[in-house]
Write a structure and sequence with these properties.
With 219 residues, the chain is α/β, with parallel strands linked by helices. It is 61% helix and 14% strand. A 5-stranded parallel beta sheet has the order 2-3-1-4-5, sandwiched between helices.
């Protein structure tokens, strides 16, 4: 199943590349941090104040899971429930299609916040394989927040979010996955000088003040 999807990804890439070559190359900011670090909230603020389109890898996966007739809905559901990372072929295909759709609708919409991706080395390698030369990663915006603060926020969110993974058991699994798989990716980008770190344990307004300072400087 995954192999077939990967074939579809690579099969579709040339037409995507050709169309993108006629437009501005996508400018990407990866947004990373633990579950509950406030990535979605801050991305909403960024979209309100800057010309970025917010693409949440998690939201795209949840939408695909819920889409009637989805070939991968149950597979995605099982991974999310277990706090595991969904196969990269699925995630990149969804991100690629979302960027393509946005840029086709408005060629001025070429700046993207990709929230919750890349989550591990497999994600990063998949991105480099499929999107190398086709999108520019400007930097990683890293929301640094303590584990207990993240868990408390998610448990509070779970009271109204309806998300199946906003419970303590799933959260502890997600935190471990984040520490083991995503932190090394952040450290890799740090060595390249491509990480901008924000203390995300504070209030929404305090965090956004730091985010605004970073974006105003980076342009």
């Amino acid at each position: 199943m995954i192999g077939r999807l990967l074939g579809n990804v690579f099969q579709r890439v040339p037409s995507f590349v050709y169309r993108v070559s006629l437009m501005m190359k996508p400018q990407v900011m990866f947004v990373l941090g633990g579950p509950g670090a406030g990535k979605g909230t801050q991305c909403s603020r960024i979209v309100e104040n800057y010309n970025y389109t917010h693409l949440s890898a998690g939201d795209l996966l949840r939408e695909e899971r819920a889409r009637e007739g989805s070939e991968f809905g149950q597979l995605i559901a099982n991974y999310i429930k277990d706090g595991k990372i969904v196969p990269v072929e699925i995630t990149i295909n969804l991100l690629r299609k979302a960027m393509e759709k946005t840029m086709q609708a408005d060629e001025k919409k070429f700046r993207f916040l990709i929230d919750g991706f890349p989550r591990n080395e497999d994600n990063l390698q998949g991105w480099n394989t499929v999107m190398d030369g086709k999108a520019d990663v400007k930097f990683v915006l890293f929301f640094d927040c303590g584990n207990e603060v993240c868990i408390d926020r998610c448990l509070e969110r779970g009271k109204s979010s309806g998300r199946s993974d906003d419970n303590r058991e799933s959260l502890e699994k997600r935190i471990q996955t984040y520490l083991q798989s995503t932190r090394p990716i952040i450290e890799l980008y740090e060595k390249q000088g491509k990480v901008r770190t924000v203390d995300a344990s504070r209030s929404v307004d305090e965090v956004f003040a730091d985010v605004k300072a970073i974006l105003d400087k980076e342009g």
